[in-house]
Design goal:
Radius of gyration of chain B: 17 Å
Oligomer: heterodimer
Distance between the termini of chain B: 43 Å
CATH architecture of chain B: Roll
CATH topology of chain B: SH3 type barrels
Number of strands of chain B: 5
Strand order of the largest sheet of chain B: 3-2-1-4-5
Structural class of chain A: alpha/beta
Strand order of the largest sheet of chain A: 4-3-5-6-11-10
Shape of chain A: globular
Number of strands of chain A: 11
Number of domains of chain B: 1
Largest sheet of chain A: 6 strands, mixed
Strand content of chain A: 15-25%
Helix content of chain A: 25-40%
Number of helices of chain A: 15
Strand content of chain B: 35-45%
Largest sheet of chain B: 5 strands, antiparallel
Radius of gyration of chain A: 20 Å
Order of helices and strands of chain B: EEEEEH
Chain lengths: 365, 80
């Protein structure tokens, strides 16, 4: 496929690996923010091209993984209602709440459906006027414009049977929280390319300056990731801490203005709790007060439903780059994709799932 | 979840959702092009969950690949 295959060229990847090995003079730790980047790194073995002094740690950029148990429990309570058609991206169905997951609700007869797009849920609401159609609006800034468009469309059509359960999170406050932690050992970030295609790069300049940390906006194919790593270590070796854009074929400094206008129309910045990490101020989006009629938590009165995480799950440390998945005692034993303790083991972007799928039998990891 | 897939626009129906058909290899899907108001048939976009995030800049992509090709030639010459 065009814009994919040419960015997986082995000869250029080897050259980039050699350039990185020549550039690195001191030990450095880089964090790739996005779970999609984590999967590409582990799947293609990109870390094996890197010098031993360069460590990659995996960041919190998996929205499925950081959705709090309380909101999963709210989703389960709504989805179990006989009048509700509950729509979600497929990743969310196996994420464990306090006691069960959406698959179990579905197996008991709940009308739980996997959709490709939030706009598909709006179509369902139009087709099923006798039912309440709820979309599970989970995601980072990348997913926010699509979810906003769905709400805007429902509002414009006057659909009374459509609502969303919102658990939207934002990347910059998470980077700030990670860097402010005394345990943080990250020297540079590969920022999430598709988040920045929506929001641009302007939010990252104050973070790079305040924490003296290079931030390189990076795409998802092997050559992209290796080039992003090279740009980050070049900055570190030269003593620079700037925002650079590796994904220049898509990301503009100002981002996508129509997408930002959609987000502005529907959402406002709110505090959010991140699963495994805790509360982070201003780290999410919530519906604007004038659109509260589309808030599924309010519509079904589940806003006070809460839940507790498994005490055996150490995904919080994994999401902060403080623990590699195989270092968790439950990895591959108590916790597997069929019986996950935490969301990092089931999401297609979860770090534990990536290691289980690609590195389970590798004694080096 | 932030997966984005490159695809080429086949056609567009002008409406608030600006729906259009986008080809991903041999797979064709209906996508909202509301956030890429200037992109028409033939343009390449990156699509996430049914919405085109933005238009791909083909010249930028070619420039990156040319730079990496030069890097690879340089490394190979040094190692020869």
């Amino acid at each position: 496929m065009r814009f994919v295959e040419e960015f997986r060229d082995g000869r250029k990847a080897q050259a980039l690996g050699e350039a990185i090995r020549r550039k690195v003079m001191r030990p450095w730790t880089l964090m790739e923010v996005c779970g999609g980047q984590t999967h590409a790194i582990v799947r293609f073995g990109l870390d094996e091209l890197l010098p031993k002094d360069l460590t990659l740690v995996h960041g919190p950029g998996c929205p499925v993984c950081v959705t709090p148990v309380a909101i999963i429990d709210q989703a389960l309570a709504i989805a179990a209602r006989p009048d509700v058609t509950f729509c979600s991206f497929g990743d969310m169905l196996r994420v464990p709440g306090s006691a069960e997951d959406l698959f179990l609700v579905k197996s008991r007869g709940g009308d739980v459906r996997v959709v490709y797009s939030p706009l598909d849920a709006v179509v369902l609401a139009r087709q099923l006027p006798e039912r309440q159609v709820v979309f599970f609006a989970v995601g980072f800034e990348t997913t926010a414009p699509g979810n906003a468009l769905a709400v805007a469309q429902a509002a414009d059509e006057g659909l009374k049977n459509f609502s969303i359960l919102v658990s939207h999170v934002r990347v910059p406050p998470a980077i700030e929280a990670l860097m402010a932690s005394p345990q943080c050992r990250v020297n540079a970030f590969l920022a999430a390319g598709h988040v920045c295609s929506v929001m641009g790069t302007e939010e990252y300049h104050p973070l790079a300056a305040r924490f003296r940390v290079p931030i390189v906006v990076t795409a998802f194919e092997p050559l992209d990731l290796l080039q992003g790593i090279l740009m980050a270590v070049t900055q570190l070796e030269e003593g620079r801490a700037e925002v650079e854009n590796q994904y220049s074929r898509l990301v503009k400094a100002g981002g996508n203005r129509p997408a930002q206008a959609l987000i502005q129309r529907v959402f406002q910045v709110v505090d959010r709790t991140w699963r495994g990490i805790g509360p982070i101020p201003d780290s999410g989006f919530g519906l604007r007060p004038e659109l509260a009629a589309f808030d599924a938590a309010l519509r079904f009165g589940v806003q006070d439903v809460g839940g507790a995480e498994s005490p055996d799950c150490q995904s919080g440390l994994v999401l902060q780059g403080l623990l590699k998945p195989p270092q968790c005692p439950a990895f591959g034993t108590l916790c597997t994709p069929d019986h996950p303790l935490g969301a990092t083991m089931v999401s297609s972007e979860g770090a534990c799932a990536a290691y289980y799928r690609y590195r389970r039998f590798d004694p080096a990891h | 979840m932030c997966l984005g897939v490159p695809g080429q626009i086949l056609d567009v129906v002008e409406s608030p959702l600006r729906l259009g058909r986008v080809a991903f290899g041999s797979t064709i899907k209906e996508i909202s092009l509301a956030c890429v108001p200037d992109a028409g048939p033939g343009a390449w976009v990156v699509v996430h969950a049914g919405l085109a995030l933005d238009q791909l800049d083909e010249a930028e992509a070619m420039h990156m690949l040319e730079c990496l090709n030069a890097l690879a030639e340089g490394v190979e010459q040094e190692e020869a």
